[in-house]
From TrEMBL:
Pfam families: Neurochondrin. Belongs to the neurochondrin family. It comes from Pontoporia blainvillei. Transmembrane segments: none annotated. InterPro entries: ARM-type_fold, Neurochondrin. This is Neurochondrin. PANTHER family: NEUROCHONDRIN.
Length: 753
């Protein structure tokens, strides 16, 4: 963009600006000064018109010649007024307008906009008004609207929106209208919104709207367009002013008693910030929505309110809903209305589904699912939860019915993606109800997830379109997860525990698809990728995949042995764990990988990759590191003997970790007799010696029975598998320790030669 500051400041010719008496423009009264053919130029009249059938207008040609040959400002101004007389108001086409521009150029309008002295008897703003009118006329040509000489006027034009003056002055009003016409024309060009935002237009528009002066409605309309085109940039450049507009709109919404509240429902989603919404705005918005949705409404009145509520739910969860009886009633009403709307839309035949409204209702149902499954500080009371679960079950039944009718030609439609998303959210929490219907739909879900996985780029685009549906027809809003598998993983994790659904998933090829997906997601965490900027969803997806694979290892071990994809998965786990256990903040993922790898190693123990190869040795060394560092001896006040305690890294996440840890200990124990090289490797790591040392340094009363059993299992198998292990344990007072902890099996094993 060419900045205004790059041009030298220009002023009109030295001395007073002379206007011939017969052409002198009086202070603009009556007709606005910007109308062609009247006292000035009105840009809004610069529209295509009738061409001269017999050729060019000779009078106009003569005046354009005078305009081109003008030697000073006075002559140019006079010739310009003659041109306006030669062209009837509105009787100007694009070609004529362009020829006028070619004759005038940008220099004269530039000088009109920047002059600081006006002729005697002429108000200061009149010349600027004429300059803006010329620009507005030229901006009706899209090519000229994107011209650098127009773009570098954006800061000046923006100042006109908030300039003080007589609100009843016709010339000033005309100048404001022309200014909006210029800015709107620029906004319609490909890079126009960026130039406007960089030129300070967002803040100027906000101030113009908040001032409620002439043209403030045009300011709001242009703001809406800029937010729709470049939301992130708008908030970056004008957050304080946009928040002020949001506060004003929210307050108006809360107070509105007429039809304007429904119009505000459509505007407000655009003004919700990408960061935190001010609490006072949330209060006003919730109060306004409560009054609307609590009334008997037609669909055109209710739907914008549901979409606004969905936008708030997506941005703030349930934080915008007050606690207490009123809040719980409002939330119950909101979710109930969403369920009813979904059923009506998806069950009625022969009617077109309002996809944007239904997708908004999906977002409200997700909010209901979250609140119904929340154990602490839920907004809902237990009877309300029971009722809403019943309502949502019926709505989910309608979603399943809709998805059963989706053919291959519709699989890439964003509304199908949105419908799969809400079903995934439901299955993540509830798989016992609608089991028959869910099982019937599983083949479609596997095929659908595979299609989107194989066309990941299109899936990401679908996520944007889904967000668009959920919020408004003009704004993309926050991004929703971009692949169907991520949405379905939690539900599939539950379903793989059950025989019937698991068999369907296996038959449809879900395990192979999940292996490919896991490897793809894992690639994002590999060296060369900045894991600090990865979304949490990537790690959560990896963990959930591990849980599904753990279910398959336990319930379908034959599948692990015969399907080649699990061999590839095992190789990836072995290669990845050594680095993973060293990374801060990723202990839970390391626990999943270690435990899954240990369980799979038992089933794949005959694989060449597990016969003491560098990769297998590195994996088991890392697994031992994970298992051995979970507990430490901790001194206690007033006691000579330490107690067994969780190490700091494990303590905060032990509730999520302990099941994996115990399963990992059990799996390692099972691997020892199957892999002859493992016991000597464990001995070299000094794990058995350090484990006995740890047990000997703490009070036996501080070690829970399940911990004693886990430790004994590992020590016994290592002692049985290798004579050197037994000798090392005896040297570490293993027999005495076994006696103190009543480890009869270990004591007996160490007593043997």
């Amino acid at each position: 963009m060419v900045l205004l500051s790059h041009f030298p400041e220009v002023t009109l010719d030295q001395g007073p600006f002379f206007i011939p008496k017969d052409l002198r423009v009086q202070p603009f009264k009556g007709a606005p000064p910007r109308e062609l053919g009247k006292a000035g130029i009105m840009a809004s009249d610069c529209e295509p018109a009738l061409n001269q059938a017999e050729g060019r207008n000779p009078t106009l040609e003569r005046y354009l010649g005078a305009l081109r040959e003008a030697k000073n400002d006075s002559e140019q101004f006079a010739a310009l007024l003659l041109v306006t007389k030669a062209v009837k108001a509105g009787d100007i086409d694009a070609k004529t307008r362009r020829r006028i521009f070619d004759a005038v150029g940008f220099t004269f309008p530039n000088r009109l906009l920047t002059t600081k002295e006006a002729p005697d008897g002429c108000p200061d703003h009149v010349l600027r008004a004429l300059g803006v009118a010329l620009l507005a006329c030229f901006c009706s040509d899209p090519e000229l609207a994107a011209h650098p000489q127009v773009l570098n006027k954006i800061p000046i034009l923006s100042t006109f929106l908030t300039a003080r003056g007589d609100p009843d002055d016709a010339a000033r009003r005309s100048m404001i209208d022309d200014t909006y016409q210029c800015l709107t024309a620029v906004a319609g060009t490909p890079r126009g919104p960026r130039h406007l935002i960089a030129g300070g237009t967002v803040s100027a528009l906000c101030q113009a709207y908040l001032g409620h002066g002439y043209g403030f409605d045009q300011a709001l309309a242009l703001l809406v367009g800029l937010l729709a085109a470049a939301e992130t940039q708008c908030w970056k450049e004008g957050e304080p002013d946009l928040l002020a507009v949001l506060r004003g709109l929210s307050e108006d919404f809360q107070k509105a008693e007429d039809a304007s509240k429904f119009e505000l429902c459509q505007l407000l989603p655009l003004f919700l910030p990408p960061t935190t919404v001010p609490s006072e705005c949330l209060r006003d918005l919730q109060a306004g929505l409560a009054r609307i949705l609590g009334s008997k409404l037609s669909s055109w009145q209710r739907n914008p309110a549901l979409k606004l509520a969905a936008r708030l739910a997506h941005a703030c969860g349930s934080d915008w809903i007050p606690a207490g009886n009123s809040g719980s009633k409002f939330l119950a009403l909101l979710v109930n209305l969403a369920c009813v709307e979904v059923r009506l839309a998806l069950e009625e035949t022969g009617t077109e589904v309002k996809e944007d409204v239904v997708t908004a209702c999906y977002a409200l149902m997700e909010l209901g699912i979250q609140e119904c499954t929340r154990c602490e500080q839920s907004l809902l009371k237990e009877p309300q939860k029971v009722q809403l679960v019943s309502d949502m079950k019926e709505a989910i039944g309608s979603v399943i019915h809709y998805l059963q009718q989706v053919g291959p030609e519709k699989q890439k439609e964003p509304f199908v993606f949105a419908s799969v998303r809400i079903l995934g959210a439901w299955l993540a929490e509830e798989t016992s109800s609608l089991r028959k219907e869910v099982c019937q739909l599983l083949p479609f879900l596997v095929r659908y997830a595979k299609t989107l996985y194989e066309e990941a780029e299109e899936a990401n685009d679908l996520s944007q379109q889904v967000a668009t549906l959920a919020i408004s027809p003009t704004t993309p809003g926050p991004t929703w997860p971009g692949d169907a598998l991520r949405l379905l993983l939690p539900g599939w994790c539950h379903l793989t525990v059950e025989d019937g659904p698991r068999e369907i998933l296996i038959k449809e090829g879900a395990p192979s698809l999940l292996c490919k997906y896991f490897l793809q997601q894992w690639e994002l965490t590999s060296p060369g990728h900045d894991t600090s900027v990865l979304p949490d969803s990537v790690e959560i997806s990896l963990q959930t995949c591990c849980h599904i694979f753990l279910n398959l290892v336990v319930t379908a071990p034959g599948l692990i042995k015969r399907d080649a994809c699990f061999t590839s998965l095992m190789n990836t786990l072995m290669a990845s764990l050594p680095a993973l256990v060293q990374q801060q903040g990723r202990l839970l993922l390391a626990a999943n990988v270690a435990t899954l790898g240990l369980l799979m190693a038992r089933l794949l123990s005959t694989s060449p990759a597990l016969q003491g190869t560098p990769a297998s040795r590195g994996f088991f060394a890392a697994a031992i590191l994970f298992l051995s560092q979970s507990h430490v001896a901790r001194a206690t006040a007033g006691s000579d003997q330490a107690v067994l305690a969780l190490s700091p890294d494990y303590e905060g996440i032990w509730a999520d970790l302990q099941e994996l840890w115990f399963l990992g200990m059990q799996a390692f124990t099972g691997c020892v007799p199957l892999l002859p090289w493992l016991a000597p490797a464990a001995l070299r790591s000094r794990w058995p010696q350090e484990l006995l040392q740890l047990l000997g340094s703490v009070s036996p009363n501080s070690v829970k029975p399940e911990m004693v059993a886990a430790y004994q299992g590992v020590l016994v198998e290592l002692a049985r598998a290798n004579r050197l292990c037994r000798e090392a344990m005896r040297l570490q007072a293993g027999e005495e320790t076994a006696s103190h902890y009543h480890m009869a099996a270990l004591e007996q094993c160490l007593a043997e030669p």
